[in-house]
Protein backbone atom coordinates (compact mmCIF):
# COMPACT_ATOMS: atom_id res chain seq x y z
CA UNK A 1 0.00 0.00 0.00
CA UNK A 2 2.92 2.29 0.83
CA UNK A 3 4.41 1.61 -2.60
CA UNK A 4 1.05 2.19 -4.22
CA UNK A 5 0.75 5.56 -2.50
CA UNK A 6 4.24 6.54 -3.64
CA UNK A 7 3.36 5.46 -7.16
CA UNK A 8 0.24 7.65 -7.08
CA UNK A 9 2.26 10.61 -5.83
CA UNK A 10 4.83 10.07 -8.54
CA UNK A 11 2.18 9.91 -11.22
CA UNK A 12 0.69 13.08 -9.80
CA UNK A 13 3.98 14.93 -10.00
CA UNK A 14 4.62 13.78 -13.56
CA UNK A 15 1.03 14.54 -14.45
CA UNK A 16 1.20 18.05 -13.15
CA UNK A 17 4.44 18.90 -14.87
CA UNK A 18 4.34 17.42 -18.33
CA UNK A 19 0.72 16.54 -18.72
CA UNK A 20 -0.54 19.80 -17.35
CA UNK A 21 1.43 21.62 -19.98
CA UNK A 22 0.36 19.22 -22.71
CA UNK A 23 -3.26 19.61 -21.67
CA UNK A 24 -3.17 23.41 -21.76
CA UNK A 25 -1.39 23.27 -25.08
CA UNK A 26 -3.99 20.87 -26.40
CA UNK A 27 -6.81 23.21 -25.36
CA UNK A 28 -5.10 26.07 -27.16
CA UNK A 29 -4.55 23.96 -30.26
CA UNK A 30 -8.23 23.03 -30.16
CA UNK A 31 -9.06 26.74 -30.30
CA UNK A 32 -6.64 27.27 -33.22
CA UNK A 33 -7.75 24.22 -35.22
CA UNK A 34 -11.43 24.79 -34.53
CA UNK A 35 -11.16 28.42 -35.62
CA UNK A 36 -9.26 27.56 -38.81
CA UNK A 37 -11.68 24.77 -39.72
CA UNK A 38 -14.70 27.06 -39.30
CA UNK A 39 -12.94 29.80 -41.25
CA UNK A 40 -12.19 27.38 -44.09
CA UNK A 41 -15.83 26.38 -44.29
CA UNK A 42 -17.13 29.94 -44.27
CA UNK A 43 -14.53 31.88 -46.19
CA UNK A 44 -16.50 31.81 -49.47
CA UNK A 45 -19.98 32.30 -48.00
CA UNK A 46 -19.42 34.65 -45.11
CA UNK A 47 -16.01 36.37 -45.03
CA UNK A 48 -16.94 38.37 -41.90
CA UNK A 49 -17.67 35.22 -39.92
CA UNK A 50 -14.53 33.62 -41.35
CA UNK A 51 -12.51 36.59 -40.14
CA UNK A 52 -13.91 36.17 -36.63
CA UNK A 53 -12.83 32.54 -36.62
CA UNK A 54 -9.36 33.53 -37.80
CA UNK A 55 -9.20 36.02 -34.90
CA UNK A 56 -10.07 33.27 -32.49
CA UNK A 57 -7.40 31.01 -34.00
CA UNK A 58 -4.88 33.83 -33.63
CA UNK A 59 -5.86 34.31 -30.00
CA UNK A 60 -5.41 30.58 -29.35
CA UNK A 61 -1.98 30.68 -30.99
CA UNK A 62 -1.01 33.72 -28.93
CA UNK A 63 -1.99 31.90 -25.77
CA UNK A 64 0.14 28.93 -26.79
CA UNK A 65 3.06 31.28 -27.44
CA UNK A 66 2.47 32.85 -24.02
CA UNK A 67 2.54 29.39 -22.43
CA UNK A 68 5.89 28.53 -23.99
CA UNK A 69 7.22 31.92 -22.88
CA UNK A 70 6.17 31.09 -19.36
CA UNK A 71 7.76 27.65 -19.60
CA UNK A 72 11.02 29.27 -20.57
CA UNK A 73 10.61 31.68 -17.69
CA UNK A 74 10.21 28.70 -15.38
CA UNK A 75 13.96 28.16 -15.34
CA UNK A 76 14.28 31.75 -14.18
CA UNK A 77 11.80 31.00 -11.40
CA UNK A 78 9.45 33.79 -12.32
CA UNK A 79 6.90 31.69 -14.15
CA UNK A 80 4.07 32.63 -11.87
CA UNK A 81 3.20 36.23 -11.42
CA UNK A 82 0.58 36.53 -8.71
CA UNK A 83 -1.34 39.74 -8.35
CA UNK A 84 -4.70 40.84 -6.98
CA UNK A 85 -7.36 39.65 -9.42
CA UNK A 86 -11.07 40.37 -9.39
CA UNK A 87 -12.76 37.21 -10.68
CA UNK A 88 -15.83 39.02 -12.03
CA UNK A 89 -13.69 41.22 -14.26
CA UNK A 90 -11.41 38.34 -15.26
CA UNK A 91 -14.32 36.14 -16.35
CA UNK A 92 -16.04 39.03 -18.15
CA UNK A 93 -12.80 39.52 -20.09
CA UNK A 94 -12.96 35.89 -21.22
CA UNK A 95 -16.52 35.94 -22.54
CA UNK A 96 -15.56 36.37 -26.22
CA UNK A 97 -13.06 33.55 -25.99
CA UNK A 98 -15.63 31.36 -24.24
CA UNK A 99 -18.33 32.15 -26.80
CA UNK A 100 -16.03 31.18 -29.64
CA UNK A 101 -14.57 28.10 -27.96
CA UNK A 102 -17.96 26.68 -27.02
CA UNK A 103 -19.63 27.26 -30.37
CA UNK A 104 -22.97 28.70 -31.38
CA UNK A 105 -25.18 26.00 -29.86
CA UNK A 106 -23.94 26.74 -26.34
CA UNK A 107 -25.23 29.86 -24.61
CA UNK A 108 -22.61 31.38 -22.35
CA UNK A 109 -23.82 33.54 -19.47
CA UNK A 110 -21.42 35.39 -17.19
CA UNK A 111 -22.86 36.68 -13.94
CA UNK A 112 -21.05 38.68 -11.26
CA UNK A 113 -22.64 39.13 -7.85
CA UNK A 114 -20.62 42.33 -7.60
CA UNK A 115 -18.71 41.97 -4.32
CA UNK A 116 -15.67 43.58 -5.94
CA UNK A 117 -13.48 41.28 -3.86
CA UNK A 118 -10.05 40.23 -5.08
CA UNK A 119 -7.98 37.12 -4.75
CA UNK A 120 -4.24 36.73 -5.27
CA UNK A 121 -3.53 34.61 -8.31
CA UNK A 122 -1.59 34.26 -11.51
CA UNK A 123 -4.04 35.69 -14.03
CA UNK A 124 -3.08 33.34 -16.88
CA UNK A 125 -3.18 30.29 -14.67
CA UNK A 126 -6.66 31.20 -13.43
CA UNK A 127 -7.83 31.79 -17.01
CA UNK A 128 -6.53 28.36 -18.02
CA UNK A 129 -8.34 26.76 -15.11
CA UNK A 130 -11.61 28.38 -16.19
CA UNK A 131 -10.99 27.40 -19.82
CA UNK A 132 -10.42 23.79 -18.67
CA UNK A 133 -13.76 23.79 -16.88
CA UNK A 134 -15.52 25.34 -19.87
CA UNK A 135 -14.06 22.75 -22.29
CA UNK A 136 -15.20 19.95 -19.96
CA UNK A 137 -18.66 21.51 -19.88
CA UNK A 138 -18.72 21.68 -23.68
CA UNK A 139 -17.78 18.00 -23.93
CA UNK A 140 -20.45 17.04 -21.38
CA UNK A 141 -23.10 18.99 -23.29
CA UNK A 142 -22.12 17.47 -26.62
CA UNK A 143 -21.76 20.99 -27.95
CA UNK A 144 -25.31 22.09 -27.11
CA UNK A 145 -26.63 23.66 -23.90
CA UNK A 146 -26.12 26.40 -21.37
CA UNK A 147 -22.89 27.36 -19.63
CA UNK A 148 -23.19 29.76 -16.71
CA UNK A 149 -20.24 31.22 -14.85
CA UNK A 150 -21.13 33.01 -11.64
CA UNK A 151 -18.64 34.95 -9.54
CA UNK A 152 -19.29 36.14 -6.00
CA UNK A 153 -17.76 36.84 -2.62
CA UNK A 154 -18.68 34.66 0.31
CA UNK A 155 -17.81 33.93 3.95
CA UNK A 156 -17.28 30.25 4.69
CA UNK A 157 -17.21 28.60 8.09
CA UNK A 158 -14.50 26.05 8.80
CA UNK A 159 -15.04 22.87 6.79
CA UNK A 160 -18.02 24.25 4.88
CA UNK A 161 -16.26 23.18 1.66
CA UNK A 162 -13.73 20.39 1.97
CA UNK A 163 -11.22 21.29 4.63
CA UNK A 164 -11.36 25.05 4.13
CA UNK A 165 -10.41 27.26 7.06
CA UNK A 166 -13.06 29.78 8.07
CA UNK A 167 -12.71 33.02 6.15
CA UNK A 168 -13.70 35.17 3.23
CA UNK A 169 -13.44 33.70 -0.25
CA UNK A 170 -14.19 34.69 -3.79
CA UNK A 171 -16.09 31.99 -5.64
CA UNK A 172 -16.23 31.08 -9.33
CA UNK A 173 -18.98 28.60 -10.21
CA UNK A 174 -18.94 26.97 -13.65
CA UNK A 175 -22.25 25.32 -14.33
CA UNK A 176 -23.40 23.28 -17.33
CA UNK A 177 -26.56 21.54 -18.48
CA UNK A 178 -24.64 18.48 -19.67
CA UNK A 179 -24.66 14.77 -18.95
CA UNK A 180 -23.66 15.08 -15.28
CA UNK A 181 -21.66 12.43 -13.46
CA UNK A 182 -22.37 9.32 -11.48
CA UNK A 183 -21.13 9.24 -7.85
CA UNK A 184 -18.44 6.72 -8.97
CA UNK A 185 -17.08 9.16 -11.56
CA UNK A 186 -17.31 12.12 -9.14
CA UNK A 187 -15.13 10.28 -6.67
CA UNK A 188 -12.29 9.96 -9.17
CA UNK A 189 -12.38 13.10 -11.33
CA UNK A 190 -9.54 14.86 -9.51
CA UNK A 191 -7.16 11.93 -10.03
CA UNK A 192 -4.49 12.61 -12.68
CA UNK A 193 -5.16 10.57 -15.85
CA UNK A 194 -8.72 9.67 -14.86
CA UNK A 195 -10.89 10.15 -17.92
CA UNK A 196 -14.07 8.67 -19.35
CA UNK A 197 -13.35 10.16 -22.77
CA UNK A 198 -12.09 8.15 -25.74
CA UNK A 199 -8.35 7.78 -26.28
CA UNK A 200 -7.00 10.88 -27.99
CA UNK A 201 -9.80 13.08 -26.68
CA UNK A 202 -9.30 13.06 -22.92
CA UNK A 203 -6.04 13.20 -20.98
CA UNK A 204 -7.63 13.06 -17.54
CA UNK A 205 -5.53 16.02 -16.47
CA UNK A 206 -7.92 18.96 -16.57
CA UNK A 207 -9.52 18.58 -13.17
CA UNK A 208 -6.34 17.38 -11.47
CA UNK A 209 -4.78 20.65 -12.64
CA UNK A 210 -7.76 22.58 -11.33
CA UNK A 211 -7.36 20.77 -8.02
CA UNK A 212 -3.66 21.52 -7.68
CA UNK A 213 -4.29 25.15 -8.61
CA UNK A 214 -6.87 25.70 -5.83
CA UNK A 215 -4.74 23.81 -3.31
CA UNK A 216 -1.72 25.89 -4.13
CA UNK A 217 -3.88 29.00 -3.67
CA UNK A 218 -5.07 27.63 -0.30
CA UNK A 219 -8.58 27.45 -1.63
CA UNK A 220 -11.07 24.68 -2.17
CA UNK A 221 -13.16 23.20 -4.96
CA UNK A 222 -16.70 21.86 -4.69
CA UNK A 223 -18.40 19.55 -7.14
CA UNK A 224 -22.14 19.19 -7.62
CA UNK A 225 -23.36 16.81 -10.27
CA UNK A 226 -25.96 14.18 -11.01
CA UNK A 227 -26.56 12.10 -14.15
CA UNK A 228 -28.85 13.99 -16.49
CA UNK A 229 -28.82 17.11 -14.33
CA UNK A 230 -25.60 18.81 -15.33
CA UNK A 231 -22.57 19.76 -13.31
CA UNK A 232 -21.41 22.72 -11.25
CA UNK A 233 -17.76 23.10 -10.29
CA UNK A 234 -17.18 25.89 -7.78
CA UNK A 235 -13.75 27.27 -6.94
CA UNK A 236 -13.25 29.06 -3.65
CA UNK A 237 -10.12 31.22 -3.47
CA UNK A 238 -9.09 33.20 -0.38
CA UNK A 239 -10.03 36.86 -0.47
CA UNK A 240 -7.09 39.25 -0.82
CA UNK A 241 -7.61 42.52 1.01
CA UNK A 242 -4.22 44.07 0.35
CA UNK A 243 -3.66 44.67 4.04
CA UNK A 244 -1.49 42.73 6.44
CA UNK A 245 -3.58 41.22 9.21
CA UNK A 246 -3.47 43.51 12.27
CA UNK A 247 -1.56 42.00 15.19
CA UNK A 248 -4.39 42.77 17.57
CA UNK A 249 -7.48 44.95 17.66
CA UNK A 250 -6.32 48.37 18.88
CA UNK A 251 -8.11 49.59 22.00
CA UNK A 252 -10.94 52.01 21.28
CA UNK A 253 -10.09 55.62 22.01
CA UNK A 254 -12.08 57.26 24.78
CA UNK A 255 -14.68 59.55 23.23
CA UNK A 256 -13.09 62.74 24.63
CA UNK A 257 -9.74 62.26 22.83
CA UNK A 258 -11.15 60.84 19.60
CA UNK A 259 -10.16 62.95 16.57
P1 LIG B 1 -10.58 14.96 -19.38
O1 LIG B 1 -11.48 16.11 -19.65
O2 LIG B 1 -9.35 14.98 -20.21
O3 LIG B 1 -11.26 13.63 -19.37
P2 LIG B 1 -10.63 15.93 -16.66
O4 LIG B 1 -9.72 15.69 -15.50
O5 LIG B 1 -10.88 17.35 -17.00
O6 LIG B 1 -10.02 15.15 -17.87
O7 LIG B 1 -12.03 15.23 -16.40
C1 LIG B 1 -12.07 13.88 -15.91
C2 LIG B 1 -13.44 13.28 -16.17
O8 LIG B 1 -14.41 13.94 -15.36
C3 LIG B 1 -13.98 13.42 -17.58
O9 LIG B 1 -13.48 12.41 -18.44
C4 LIG B 1 -15.48 13.30 -17.36
O10 LIG B 1 -15.88 11.96 -17.20
C5 LIG B 1 -15.66 13.96 -16.00
N1 LIG B 1 -16.10 15.38 -16.13
C6 LIG B 1 -15.34 16.49 -15.98
N2 LIG B 1 -16.06 17.60 -16.13
C7 LIG B 1 -17.32 17.21 -16.38
C8 LIG B 1 -18.56 17.89 -16.62
N3 LIG B 1 -18.63 19.23 -16.65
N4 LIG B 1 -19.69 17.12 -16.83
C9 LIG B 1 -19.61 15.78 -16.81
N5 LIG B 1 -18.49 15.08 -16.59
C10 LIG B 1 -17.35 15.77 -16.38
Automatic annotation (TrEMBL):
Boundaries of every Histidine kinase domain copy: 20-241
Domain of life: Bacteria
Protein name: histidine kinase
Part of the intact protein present: 259 to 517 of 646
Amino acid sequence: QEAQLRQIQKMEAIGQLTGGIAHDFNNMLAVVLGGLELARRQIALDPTAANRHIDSATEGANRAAELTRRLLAFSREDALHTEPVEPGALVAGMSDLLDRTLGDAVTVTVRDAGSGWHTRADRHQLENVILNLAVNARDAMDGRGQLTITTAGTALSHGAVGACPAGEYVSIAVSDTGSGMTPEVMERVFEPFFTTKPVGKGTGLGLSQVFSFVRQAEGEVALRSAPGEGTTVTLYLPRHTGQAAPAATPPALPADIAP
